[in-house]
Predict the structure.
Amino acid sequence: MKRSMTKLGCVFFIAGIYISSIAPAAASQTREIRIADSRGDWGYPNPYRHYPRGPGYIRMSWVFDTLIWKDQNGYIPALAASWSYDPGKMTFTFKLNPKATWHDGQPLTADDVVFTIEYFKRHPYAWITVKDLDRAEAEDRRTVSIYLSRPYAPFLSDIGGTMPTLPKHIWKDVENPAKYNDPKAFIGSGPYIFRNFDKTKGTYLYEAFKEYYQGRPRADRLIYVRSAKPLVSLATGEVDLANIKPDMAEPLRQQGLAVIQDERGWNKKLMINHSRSPFNDKRLRTALAYAINRQEIIDKSHRGLAAPASYGLLSIDHEMYNPKTPTYPYSPAKACELIESAGYRKGPDGYLVRDGRPLKIELLSSNITVAGERVADRDGEVIKKQLAAIGIQVDLVNMEQATTDSRVKNWQFDLAVSGHGGLCGDPRMLNEMISSQYGAGSVNSARYDADPELNRLMEDQMREMDPEKRKAIVFRIQQIYAQDLPAISLYYPDSMAAYNPGKGIRWYYTKGGISKGIPIPQNKMSLIK
Amino acid sequence: MRKGHHIGLVPAYLLAGLVLIYASYILPRLLPGDFVTAMYSSSHVALTADQEDQIRAHYSHGEGFSRFLVNLLTLNWGYSYAFLTPVSGLILGALPWTLLLLGSAHAISMFFGFIAGVEAAWRRGGYLEKAGVGCMTVLEGMPEIGTGVALLLVFALYLEWFPPSGAETAYAMSSPLGRIWDVARHLVLPLSTLVLAYFPGNFLLTRASMVMVLRAQFVQTARAKGLPPARVRYAHAARNALLPMVTRFGLRIAFMITGALVVENIYSYPGLGTLLFNAIAMRDLPLIQGIVLFSSLLVLFINLALEYVYGWIDPRVDYAY
């Protein structure tokens, strides 16, 4: 009996040593980076299968390279070592990096770029528009020229910096790209090779592409894990990088983690139904702007960890931000004056009435925040109280997000608290978030087409290739938008991430956001340069 | 006669199954909003009206109920809109983790809840029983979200005894033995949370029914015969207190799929609850239909099976018909 107990003890002891020896051995061989994500699944990382959200694009961006890319200072070379624009011919010419190859060892040539543009014309990739591109031609093996059919100002941002390049030798026979589920569908030219996506666990595994043309990536393995509590995961060393709530910054700094903060590229916004009474009247929309005390929302709902937004939509950190954009300092008196000029009078109960009918509206609330995360806030309650103070009765409704979205899409609302990013990206974003011509499918677009000058300016800014002239147009768009107020930008929540500096990798937020303005600090260049 | 009664049950269950299939077909379709709105309308991609129509046409869900039924019977459960992979594969991928977490939570809390309930009833009026009932009543009132977060903070963040999230270390390059150890370590906290949530109910239920049974004359007879107390408790009395527990088990199966959603969320534990929750948020109709159908058929099947188990545990059930 005693002997068998001793034997059993030995077995456990040896097993214990064996198990404990695995972990350190594995750690020294593989230098890996683990990134936490609160949701987990963002689709398979190729252009046709990732979810149309920032985190989905980022997962794809490790595998597929674009012609150019961005770091914290602006555009940098990627597949294209250099590029130029000929205004006479309306042509962009890219000289490809001669070292660039696909993950399967095939060289990457100008033909692949030409093919990619043709393929996206046949099978659209929703992130980019190729309809203003006339054609692409391979000048030689490493030089490609892209001819525009008409001037297209966001070219560098959308085509240069967002369009993933596809390998011709793999995709040329693929007729249904969304259903193409072969391992070859993930062969790209990016720094990492896609190895696994576990749909149940929400985890991704990538391995370094050692022959990457910009140098071998610094981490051999890149892993995404799902973690509902990034603070705990970071503090326990389970992950190396995670988005954090701004309140967590100080405790994490004290633990030796590096905390980074993004520019102000995401705004919480009040959507207004300007297509029906009462807010089809500009005076009432202006009254809203005066009646809402944004600083109070920030203080009460976010403990001060946010900044008031520009009424002109573009971020105040954007190089094309118009400093003379109209503002509406908090003034209930001015708000009341405007509402009364529209024929409303205060009733005996203190609420506004016109023609015997009370001014009663519905406010849809939501708790979305930066980078696809969610946070329970009290924005709706604070706004309700502020509007009640000037005599507007507010019915606050908090529903599940997709239900709220579909009501806003169908114009079944008066006011809705919503939010979106991209405010530091290409000013094309203004068109998408203002006009129904560009953003009919977006729940965050004001879909406001009532101002002919604004409509014309939005079209002009898309065709103006001279940055200075475009800037003047964009200035004017912000001004008119802030005067018409088809929606009201409320504030920019502080957007932060924390990482473990012990891994020797410095993560940063990209200037203007990754690609079209994704406010996530997972820039692949952090692991390259 | 008893056999005939059981056979008569089968058509009734088949009919119920058909109703459930129809419910799982039609209910998800009644959700406001659709996949394209949920997926694209607040995304980084602002679609024009044309683009939106094109994408919507791609995901139109026009199949009728008869087609749905035929597909079902030929084991074609459809493709998930979001993942673009077969629904059956997604369900089978999540099921083992749900079974591991919820199956073991139910088994542990039922077994120990039952034993503790029997022992408490036996010691009725003693300090231990009074304290037990008091503690369990308090614990029964504690929501999982409270105990879950408390356990996470104490044992994962401060003591660092157990990992805070996931079902195993993702892509750890360990041996099979190391993997079992890893999975077990990850299971401890979510399992403890669920056991703390389920145990008190089982304890209180068993204790209450056992107290009634212990008053019965046959128990006194058993004692008078001089049988050992443990035999009186378990072989004679406890068997009669088992029936409510089995009924409770049948009812609990219904929560098996989605019941752990809160715990799955706190510990980022994979499972059908999270899969269903995300599918609903994205209006991924085929996946919602698949999971709802799978779980409702499971409940139906377990209940049918329990009809037989009842008769086996307590023959009086069959004679009652």
